[in-house]
Design brief:
It is found in: Endoplasmic reticulum. The protein is of the alpha/beta class. Helices cover about 40% and strands about 15% of the residues. The protein is built from six helices and six strands, in the order βαβαβαβαβαβα.
Length: about 200
């Protein structure tokens, strides 16, 4: 008689790997929690993954926490790619993509504003339509923001409103950074735009 499993995914069997990028700056208190949550949901779903921590020279000891997590989970799961100083979120993603070994990239914030329980949903959505990019949204369906002050909410809503009004991109949340993409596509776009 076969075993019954509560695992949801099939990523490990078909050679798919997910590189989860976590840019950090002063995330000493959050890094262990977000990594634990990612590991929990990715292991439960049986997806192969790596977590790439891109620390921008955090003075609060974030990188040291990353090193401890690497000892716990192993260097094949926790990949540290620190930079000497704060160089910005966009360049942190580019740096992480250059070091990713997965077929897919997942980008998210390390400050717990993006819950890792949604990563398996991103993966299922991507597979359901063979999409190149899947983007989380705070503004439709079950999306939302928690722990934000009024100013941060206002800036986010205002930027999205202006973008919708001026560009009509067909996406509900362009200022968020919780996305999944095919790695080869991401690298291709970076190559085209880095000239």
């Amino acid at each position: 008689m076969g075993e019954v499993s509560d695992k949801e995914g099939d990523g490990a069997e078909n050679g798919e790997k997910y590189s989860i990028l976590l840019p950090t700056y002063n995330e000493h208190d959050n890094l262990a929690i977000i990594v634990w949550l990612i590991v929990k949901y990715m292991e439960k779903s049986d997806y192969d993954y790596e977590i790439i921590v891109i620390d921008d020279g955090s003075p609060d000891g974030t990188l040291e926490v990353g090193k401890q997590l690497q000892e716990i989970y192993g260097s094949e799961k926790i990949v540290l790619r620190p930079r000497e100083k704060k160089l910005g979120l966009g360049t942190a993603y580019i740096h992480g993509i250059k070091h990713a070994t997965g077929n897919f990239i997942v980008i998210m914030d390390a400050d717990l504003s993006h819950h890792p329980k949604f990563i398996p949903e991103f993966i299922k959505k991507q597979k359901s339509g063979n999409f190149d990019v899947v983007s989380g949204t705070r503004y439709i369906g079950t999306g939302g923001v928690f722990g934000w002050d009024f100013r941060r909410k206002l800036v986010s809503r205002g930027a999205n409103f202006l973008t919708q009004l001026l560009l009509r991109p067909g996406a509900s949340d362009l200022t968020g950074s919780f996305r999944s993409a095919v790695c080869s596509l991401t690298r291709s776009v970076l190559a085209e735009t880095s000239d």
